[in-house]
Amino acid sequence: MWKRLRRLLRFCIALNFLFFGLLKIARLHFNQTHPIILNDTMGLRALTFYYFSAAPLYIQIVGCFQLLAGVCLLFKGLRSVGSCLALAIQTNIFLINLCYSFGPLVTIYNCILFCFLAFFSFPYLKSLIVSSYVGIDS
Fold first, then answer.
1. How many CB atoms lie within 10 A of CB 42?
2. Which residues of the chain fall short of a pLDDT of 70?
3. 8 A C-beta contact, residue 52 and residue 58
4. How many whole angstroms separate alpha carbon 97 and alpha carbon 16?
5. How many structural domains does the chain have?
6. What is the pLDDT of residue 22?
7. What angle, 0 to 180 degrees and rounded to 10, lies between the N-to-C axes of helices 104-137 and 79-99?
8. Between vectors from CA 67 to CA 45 and to CA 8, what angle results, nearest 5°?
9. What's the confidence (pLDDT) of residue 21?
10. Amino acid 38: pLDDT
């Protein structure tokens, strides 16, 4: 049962990363194109969308890494690479959503996704850390 749950979780996370990666590469995510007037009443979320829209190359690079993580999560031999890459990307996204006040639902969704990724990545990270310590002592 745990094996099926982990497989389903990995598949759902991979689809999430593939979907949002494609949105970023196609410039459908963070696509604020009209100029805005900066003032005190402007929300932090609108300013963040405008800020990220001003750096389309950054958004497309993040999208490429999200696609890479999603593809790696789909293949058995690349699970460890995909889970560690996805955890790093999701940490970045979670902190952006948390610090720039994207709203409680988005933050909770990203927190849950981060926790699932941490749960899924733990065995790979544990073996990576243990093998690095063994290599130092040798």
1. 12
2. 31-45, 127-138
3. yes
4. 16
5. 1
6. 94
7. 130
8. 95
9. 93
10. 60
Residues 32 and 53: beta-carbon distance below 8 Å: yes
63-29-36 Cα angle (round to 5): 130
Q: Which phi and psi angles does 113 have, rounded to 5°?
A: -65, -40
Question: Among residues 64, 71, 87, which one has the least CA distance to residue 14?
Answer: 71
Radius of gyration, CA atoms only, the chain:
17
**In three state form, how does the secondary structure of the chain look?**
CHHHHHHHHHHHHHHHHHHHHHHHHCCCCCCCCCCCCCCCCCCHHHHHHHHHHCCHHHHHHHHHHHHHHHHHHHCHHHHHHHHHHHHHHHHHHHHHHHHCCCCHHHHHHHHHHHHHHHHHHHHHHHHHHHHHHHHHHC
List the domain range (segments joined by +) for residue 123: 2-34+42-137
Contacts 24+ apart (CB under 8 A), 23-28: 23/63, 24/59, 24/60, 24/62, 24/63, 24/66, 25/60, 25/63, 25/64, 25/67, 27/56, 27/59, 27/60
Predicted local distance difference test score (pLDDT) of residue 34: 59
Q: What pLDDT score does 136 carry?
A: 56
Q: What is the pLDDT of residue 123?
A: 75
Let me know: does 21 contact 64? Beta carbons within 8 Å.
Answer: yes
